[in-house]
Amino acid sequence: MSHVFPRQITAPPVKAVSAKGCYFTDEAGKQYLDGSGGAAVSCLGHGDPEIIKAIQDQVAKLAFAHTGFFTSDPAEELADLLIKYAPGDLDRVYFVSGGSEAVEAALKLARQFHIENGEPQRKHLIARRQSYHGNTLGALATGGNAWRRAQFEPILVDVSHIAPCYEYVDRAEGESAEDYGLRAAQELEDEILRLGADQVMAFVAEPVVGATMGAVPAITGYYKRIREICDTYGVLLILDEVMCGMGRTGHLFACDADGISPDILCIAKGLGAGYQPIGAMLCTKQVYDTIGAGSGFFQHGHTYLGHPTACAAGLAVVNAMFDRDLIANVNTRSEQLMTALREAFGQHPHVGDIRGRGLFLGLEFVEDRDSKTPFDPILKTAATFKKAAFEAGLICYPMSGTRDGQLGDHVLLAPPFIITEDQIGELVGKLQAAATAIP
Ligand code: PLP
Fold first, then answer.
1. Residue 147: which domain range?
2. Ligand 1 center to residue 123 CA distance, Å?
3. CATH number of the domain residue 192 falls in
4. From ligand 1's centre to the CA of 252, what distance in Å?
5. Do 257 and 125 share a structural domain?
6. Keywords, A to Z (predicted)?
């Protein structure tokens, strides 16, 4: 009998025993194609000898040194590398152990920045409905996914939620894409004015929405307008690239495609590529210097900040992305996967939308394509799809929760950047097999 506490207590998971390249093997010897990098984590695939060696070397040299006393070579080098390629004025990197921690750090940094900048009244946070920013209480409060929040609502801090930029459902008939993007962004200005122009601390959003919507990028122009609104009202822009960052969308940082840069950026998943748990919060020089010139102390921290072994893994992962030109491969394979998905599902009666950027693509399942009516939640379409895909030997990331108020179902695809053209064919074939389970 197992003593592990699984997520799904009524259906404990199968035991994986090894993984290599794009495949997992379970204890019965069955192979699974990793079509989602777990949850957009394993961007280099599994068993990469270069990353393993970097970790082994670092463990042998300096496994851990508490940041209350020391910095380390891997932390310094990884910070330099990230800042070299980071957009805008991002200048400092705060290393944590995962995505929720990166978001928590971002929220606290935003609050402390305003206090030390002489605006302690700025305490309101605005985020978007249908977003996910992590499961710790601050990050969960920030996220706008009703199902994930529901039972914890009484212990969550108050956060305002505006609409996401969700063209497939929310763009009105006859409305241009540009007008829709501006209309969606306008909700931010309206909410700032409703709360009080000098009361808002930060706006938080995912450039490409992952877990809760299934790879939904914003319309071109949306984030430019969001950036302008934040600048006008002195609101910090926090972008959560925990899932969509680190090359996943075909750019090292997802916001590169939107032509803007945030005040604070959160990354995780692909940074350690699953080899080590690591996340990071990047902030601008202005934010950093304000605290530096004020209290000189960021009042936040965890034991494993800047963990040398995790940083060594992150450094090896980012170096591998550049040395092997993997982001170019993301773009090539993205086109192939998108084409194959359109061929396989373009006319499928229950696939309403095929979308995304890079190797971060999603299919939205609907009951009726013309009216875009979602499936009745009672059918548990996403869960049924996940089970069928697993039986077919495919790991993908189906979820309910796309639509406000009604559930809506999608599947997210985020295969390793090393996926081959043949494996893309295999992935789409297995998706087709799983789709036969949709009622
Ligand atoms: N932010 C986003 C956009 C995510 O997708 C996730 C996880 O899926 C998180 C934050 C939380 O990251 P973690 O699970 O590493 O705490």
1. 51-323
2. 23
3. 3.40.640.10
4. 17
5. yes
6. Aminotransferase, Pyridoxal phosphate, Transferase
Pick the atom of ligand 1 nearest to 240's CA: 3
The answer to whether residue 6 is domain-embedded is no
Domain count, the chain: 2
Backbone phi, psi, residue 401, to 5°: 125, 5
Q: What is the pLDDT along the chain (439 residues), one digit of tens a residue?
A: 899 999 999 988 999 999 999 999 999 999 999 999 999 999 999 999 999 999 999 999 999 999 999 999 999 999 999 999 999 999 999 999 999 999 999 999 999 999 999 999 999 999 999 999 999 999 999 999 988 999 999 999 999 999 999 999 999 999 999 999 999 999 999 999 999 999 999 999 999 999 999 999 999 999 999 999 999 999 999 999 999 999 999 999 999 999 999 999 999 999 999 999 999 999 999 999 999 999 999 999 999 999 999 999 999 999 999 999 999 999 999 999 999 999 999 999 999 999 999 999 999 999 999 999 999 988 999 999 999 999 999 999 999 887 877 788 999 999 999 999 999 999 999 999 999 999 7
Closest CA to 143 of 134, 156, 154, 152: 134
Please report whether residue 227 resides in a domain. yes
The binding-site residues of ligand 1, defined as CB within 6 angstroms of any ligand atom, are 39, 98-100, 103, 132-134, 206, 210-211, 240, 242-243, 268
Q: Is residue 68 part of a domain?
A: yes
Domain end marker among 268, 303, 323: 323
User: How far apart are the CA of 213 and the centre of ligand 1, in A?
Assistant: 13
Instruction: Mark whether 363 and 240 lie in a shared domain.
Output: no
One domain for residues 348 and 263: no
Can you tell me the ipTM of this complex?
A: 0.99
pTM exceeds 0.90? yes
In a domain, 7, yes or no: no
Are 69 and 167 found together in one domain? yes
